[in-house]
Amino acid sequence: MVNGVKVRQPVFVIAAPHSGADLVGRALKRSPGFHVTMGRAAVARVVYAFARRPSIARSRGAHRVLRDVLAEAWQVMPDACAECGAACKEAGGIIGSGPCVASRSLTRFGDAGPDLLYSAPVLLQAFPDARLIQIIRDGRDVVADMLADPACLAWFRPHMLGEEAEFPNPFLGVRSAEHRGRWNDMPAAGKCALRWRSAVRLSATLRRELPAEQLLTLRYEDMLASPGRAIDAVSDFLHAEISTIALYGSAKPKTGAWRKRLSAADADLVEKVAREELKRLGYR
What is the pLDDT of residue 93? Predict the structure, then answer.
C-alpha cells in the first residue's frame, strides 16, 4: 500500500544509458493516474549497489529492500519532489519542491530511473505483476551521448574494476577478471560500447523469458519516427491512456548523429566491440 493505494502492476522503464528511458518516463509521468519517479537518490543507491555487486542482488531479502525503497519514493508528501533530480522535476513540470501529483488521483506507480535494467530480476521478485517497458537504441548513438555525459564516464575509472570487483560484471560489460587489464587500457568509447552490449544482451534475455503481456520492447528510432504509434503501443500494453503530447514536445537527440559525433577510430572500436548485437538488431 502506498498513499492508501494498493500497488498493482507497477511500470518500470528499462534501457541502456541514453536510450530513451527518460522519454517514456516523461510520457508516463504526465499521464492521469500515474506516479512515476526518475532517478531518486535512495533508489539509485540500491540499484547501483545491485548492479556493481550482483551477489547482493541475489542475496536473500534483496527484493524486499528494493520494494521498500521504491514504496518510499512513491509516497506523496509536501516536499517529496525535493529529493528528485532535475530530469524528474522537468518531466513533472515542477518548480520548487512539489509534489508533482495528487495522491487522491493515483492508480498506477512506476519508475524510469537510470540502470533499472540491471535490477530487473529483483524487480520481478519484488513485484511479480510488474510491467516492463524496455527500449533499444543504436549503440553508436548511445556511445556518442555517453561520451558527452560526465556521469556516465565517471563509471569508467580504474577502481571500478578493483580487486573486490565481481565477475561476470554485467554493469560494465566485463565477463571475467582476466579482462580487467584490457578494460582499464581500453578507450572510453570501447567501455561505453561494452556497457551497451551488455545491456542489450540482458534485454534479449528478458525478451526470451517474459510473456508478451509483461514486457514491451520499443525501438528508440521508431519512437522518434512515429511518436503516436509508440504511445499507442504503450497505452495498449498498460491498458491506460498515456500522454502523447509529452513525447512530441520533448527535445530528442537525432538518430544517426554518431556519424558526425564519433571520431573514425571511436566508431570503428564501437562496431568492433558490438558488431554482433548491432547486426542482430538491424543497425548496419
Answer: 66
